[in-house]
Structure formats: C-alpha cells, structure tokens
Amino acid sequence: MMVAIAVLIITCPCALGLAVPVVQVVAAGRLFKAGIMVKDGSAMERLAEIEAVAFDKTGTLTLGRPRLVDAAKIEPVGFAVAAGLAAHSRHPLSRALWAAYGGQPRAFETVRELPGSGVEATTDEGLWRLGNRRFACSKAAGDAGDKPYSEVVLSLDGIERATFLFEDTLRPRARSSIDVLRQSGLELGILSGDRAAVVAKLAGELGIDHWRAGLTPRDKAEACADASARGQRALMVGDGINDAPALSAAHVSMAPATAADVGRQAADFVFMRDGLEAVPFAIEASRRAGRLIRENFALAIGYNVIAVPIALLGYATPLIAAVAMSTSSIIVVANALRLNRLQLEYNPVAKSGVAVPTTMAADDARFAA
Questions:
Q1: CATH-assigned architecture of domain 1-64+169-369
Q2: How far is CA 16 from each of CA 23, 24, 27, 157, rounded to the nearest angstrom?
Q3: Which residues of the chain have pLDDT under 70?
Q4: Which phi and psi angles does 64 have, rounded to 5°?
Q5: pLDDT of 276-312, one tens digit each?
Q6: How far apart are CA 212 and CA 307, in angstroms?
C-alpha cells in the first residue's frame, strides 16, 4: 500500500501540466513589460517559426507622422478642399494634410473612403477625389517623378487640381532593429502602396533588397498568401486599413498601437512604443519560449523516468514522493522564469558608427513608470 501511494504521488503530472502554460504566461508578461501585447495564445508559437518579415512603409517603418512639403506654395482653394476631404480619412498622409491646413476646411456632406486608394465626394461641381494618382486622375500628369516624397493628388472629375508632397521620418532604432533581424537569418521585404521612388530610397537606407511599391490591399494580401503557399512562414508588420487583409493572411502579424482600429484587430501582436525594436524582441522572446517549453517537457519526463522506478522498488516513502513531485513543479516554474531575464541585444555598432544600446532596461523602466 505504501509503495502504491508513493507511486501515485510521484507520478502526479503537475510538471507536465505546467510545462506549456507557465512559459506562455511568463513570456506574455515579459512582452507586456516591453510594451508588446499578445492577442492570441498561439501567436508566439507561430512567431517562433517565421522565416521572413514583410513591412509596410508609412506608419510602420516610419513614424506615420509625415510633414507637408512647401505648404506655403499650395493654392488656397485646393488646399481647403483637400483638407475637407482629408478630415474623413485615417491615413497618415490625410491626417498630416488636414493638420497642416490652418484655416477652415471645406465641408462635405458625404465622403466615402476606399482603402488603398483615397477618399471621394460628389458635389454640384463634380466628383472630388483625394488619394494616390492612380485613383484620383484619369490621365497621368505632373507626378513627383523621382523625388523621394510621398504624394497625394486632389482631382475634380479625374483632372488633377493639386499635388501634395510629404516626407516622413524613420521609427526610432529602425536601422538597428533591421540589422538584428538580418543577422538572425530572416528574409526582409517591404510591401508598400507608396510610390516606387520613395520605397526604393527607404529600402536603400535600411539595406532591404526585396521591396514592392504601388500595392493595393489585395496585392499585399496576395503576397502574404503566396508566401504561405510556397511554405514560407512570414511575419507581416503593418498599421493601416490598407494592411488589414495582409495582416490576416500572413502566418503571424504585428501592428503598432497607432494603427487603425481594423489593423489592430487583425494583428496578433500590438506594440505600444514608437521604436521598431519590438519586432526583433518579440521574435526572440517567442523563440526562447519555445526552447523553454521543450526544456520543461524534458525535465518533466526525465523526472518521471528517474523517480517512478525508485518508487516502484519501494525506495521512496509517500513523504519523499510528495517532496519530489513538488520539486519537479518548482523546477519547471523556475526554468520558465528565466525568460524574465531576456534582454534584446542590438548590433553593437550602427551604420552611422555610433554605439547602440545593448539592453532595454531603461525603456522598460520608462514604460513601467
């Protein structure tokens, strides 16, 4: 009877039961401390498997706070019409245009937004459109050429009335984060609806060889679906309404907190800080979580392989069995807690030659505060 009781106690599968959930809880807590929210429990498993990362440009690789170029030279009437249309869109370029207009914008009764294209309104004058050149103009004319500026076109019945040029800035630590991802052996790419000249300039600055420009939301979703069809597990990082289909089609997805509501809903992860270091940090945390889960299974199985024969041979009393069973659970939990020590290692020297911070301790303290 004593041997039977000892065997029953020592084979209690507490360690096996804790192997996965305790790691997931610790990993989710560490990511949240770093400013990253996990929306799907299986997302970390999928993130640990990725082989490629695809980025949107505006609002993702950049801050999504574009600045209107030469606002003082824009014709006032067209500026007022464009600001009135832009007020009905959440696209970063539209919001920047609306914010740059200092007067009272023109009011429109009904404005319709077409994701990936722009906004339009029907008036007595005709059909006003504000968006990319392909959407706004029936005739190609007067584009920005090879200038590295994002472009928004205002048209009336397909005839261009004004062109607005914007420049944006990279997210903090974007270059060092891209370097970390490249050193991890991941294939990097950009999927953007912006002009080719703008995307090419940004890709050159970041050292990303694969990029596509002028994409519609459907094009982005098809690119992610094609990657899955080829057996390539890709992470999509995007922020806008235009990126929602791609975020849903990708193997796993991530969006900044500044993303449109539909983008945040479609993403598996949401990062709260401005810096792009959240992407390599989440990948590394997910990979380490996977390793810790495998280690926990090995510890739990190893415990049973060693302890069960001892109990069967009568060398373990129920008290010893209870202590051994509890110890195995404590070991599994302690092993999972190692994930709290995770710190993101940056490339020690950035492209500019300036030393890059090697930990996120300061950022963690500021976020906690």
A1: 3-Layer(aba) Sandwich (3.40)
A2: 12, 14, 18, 67
A3: 139-146, 344-369
A4: 70, 25
A5: 999 999 999 999 999 999 998 898 888 888 888 888 8
A6: 58
Report pLDDT for 138: 75
Catalytic option among 40, 56, 268, 364:
56
CA 163, CA 153: separation in Å to the nearest integer?
Answer: 5
Instruction: Give the CA count within 13 Å in the CB-facing half-sphere of 103.
Output: 12
Asked about 56 being catalytic, the answer comes back as yes
Of 276, 252, 297, residue with least CA distance to 51:
252
Widest Cα–Cα separation across the chain: 95
The Cα 70–Cα 15 span in angstroms is: 65
- CATH class belonging to 74-167: alpha beta
Sheet of 150-156: strands edge to edge?
Answer: 67-68, 159-167, 150-156, 126-131, 118-123, 112-114
Q: Of 265, 254, 275, nearest to 50 (Cα)?
A: 254
Q: Where are the domains of the chain?
A: 1-64+169-369, 74-167
Token pair belonging to 298: 């090995």
